[in-house]
Amino acid sequence: MTFDMARPHYILPLAGKEYQLLGTFALIEAVELVMREYVGSVAVRVVNGMPSHETAKLLSVILTSSGHPVTTEEAKELIWRDGVANQVTRMHLYSFLKICLAPPGQREAAATEMGELMGSLKASL
């Protein structure tokens, strides 16, 4: 598979299933609308103290915008099954948003960087 700078793809493992996420401007708009703040701030907060109910809203909007309709209540259940304090899930959400926010010519490098970060995180657990 070749890397598509305009449409970043990401696989989110969650609660025993893999979800393919697709980065689009519509997804960014949806995140900002639902979370009521700049998506870059949301990305930082998800790994730096975002409450679980807000993480569920974020997860719901990302999955739904990527073609996997999930309500906030269903997202809460996914988070519950995966572990409320699961930093790996939070890091996946951060990684996906960071890739989406990178300039198109830098998205592949951002994806490589985030892949290395996730690999080191998983190795340390």
Task: Describe the protein's architecture and organization.
The longest helix has 18 residues, at 107-124. Strand 1 and strand 2 form a beta hairpin. The protein is globular. The protein has 125 residues and is mainly alpha-helical. It has helices at residues 25-35, 39-47, 52-65, 72-82, 87-101, 107-124, and strands at residues 9-14, 17-22. It starts with 8 loop residues before the first strand and ends with a helix. It contains six helices and two strands. The chain has a two-stranded antiparallel ribbon.
Mean pLDDT: 88
Determine the structural class based on helices, strands and strand pairing: mainly alpha
- Figure out the total of helices: 6
Distance between the termini: 29 Å
* Poorly predicted regions: none
State the share of residues found in helices, binned by percent.
55-70%
> Spatial order of the strands in the main sheet?
1-2
How would you classify the quaternary structure?
single chain
Overall morphology: globular
Describe the main β-sheet briefly. 2 strands, antiparallel
Write down the secondary-structure element order. Answer: EEHHHHHH
Radius of gyration: 13 Å
Number of strands: 2
